[in-house]
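Closing statement on the nicotinamide-adenine-dinucleotide sub-project.
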Amino acid sequence: MKSGFNRRRFLGAAGGVAAALLTTRLRASANNRMNCAVLGVGGRGTGLLSLALTIPDVRVAAVCDIKPDRLANGLDMVTKAGQPPAAGFGDRGPLDYRRMLESKDIDAVIIATPMQDHAPMAIDCLKAGKAVLSEVAAAMTVDECWALVRAVEESGRMYMLSENVCYYRDLMAVANMVRQGLFGQTTYAECGYVHDCRFLSFEADGSLTWRGKLATQFIGNWYPTHAIGPVAQWMGINKTDRFASLVAMNTPPVGRQQYAAKKFGPESPQAKMKVVNGDSTTTLIQTANGAVIDLRFDTSSNRPHRMTTYHSLQGQTASFQSLTNDIWIESRSPSYEWETMEKYLKEFDDPRWKEFAETASKSGHGGADFFVMKDFFDALKAGTPSPIDVYDAAAWSCLMPLSGQSIQSGSARVEIPDFTRGKVKLPEAKNS
Ligand SMILES: NC(=O)c1ccc[n+]([C@@H]2O[C@H](COP(=O)([O-])OP(=O)(O)OC[C@H]3O[C@@H](n4cnc5c(N)ncnc54)[C@H](O)[C@@H]3O)[C@@H](O)[C@H]2O)c1
């Protein structure tokens, strides 16, 4: 992807750290209408745009994409949904979105461009006074994570990470159980994003997509948030605990070349491309309270999948594993045997799922996508804190560069920064 960005340009640009008054300031019009823009309307952005068009009181006022056909399609979707025509941007190149940000009418920007551009774009949006819903991951370097935190603190605008897996129905029910104390102290979790995405590596002409570029250039777990998001919420990361350190290891890279050789021929440049990342990246994270998380990332291995993500949680008094849909709760289960999660879903279903399951069912990822959009605009309208704020976004996203740092230093233990800078008072570290 040609980004046109100088990634260094904004780092350190934000000076002293302002007091963290992370309230949402929305210039809502008298009738409470919220105007939003969608930046990047490829595969994901188109889905998010169609969802935004279903949220009451939301008007999509602008659409931006550098590809003319996608821009035209996005604009068309707005009018077909019965809304007034949206303004179109992107025809003047990769930085044209800044022209869009000059509009005083836009309250919020939904960012669904390639991952490499999320942080610079989000920071520009925040500085222009817009709230941001950013696709995953939030940032790709630790410096970007800090710059994003500063931009939110200094602008006072709402920032939400669009991590839809946190809204899976069963995972939200587990969160509810954790809140109600059924798990006791949470000590261990396994989670992974294991999804053969090799088919998304190449454009029709054989050149690399943004995913293909990441796979060939980036060492480490470059898609951590689907897996770590729900676990971080269960474990109270940035509330009662925090990520303290990690170690990571890679397998050898074989899957992508194998795929490219089949698709383009064994002598093709694609089959001979140098892949620097391993197929499977395993990261062990230790929290300040001593809990351990085993995080796996694999979008290259040759295998089918039932689910693209998996999550398990071990607590003092309960255990859950999503792949087998099993749960055991000491205070509830009749014997020392696994039970099916279905048995407890009704009782622990999140109230949002209870109320909106039917509407949500029309959206992607089992309905989870609907709740991301709803939560974002609900918080924006009410001026309540971001449902997945910049501190969570930074803590989850920094696992990308830090897993790479560990791998490149022989799986050495790497410290994980506290992006809240001690704002959340944590219990004394026990084991790190
Ligand atoms: N949460 C999820 O389940 C999920 C699923 C898929 C993708 N994603 C995320 O969504 C993002 C987009 O993924 P995708 O699969 O839609 O990619 P994509 O390549 O299909 O879409 C990206 C779009 O951004 C446009 N774009 C690129 N640079 C731009 C610029 N400077 N200004 C305006 N438009 C620009 C491209 O032309 C393209 O249309 C990625 O960050 C990805 O991680 C999330």
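The two ends are 40 Å apart (CA to CA). With this model delivered, the sub-project is considered complete and its resources will be redirected to Aim 3.
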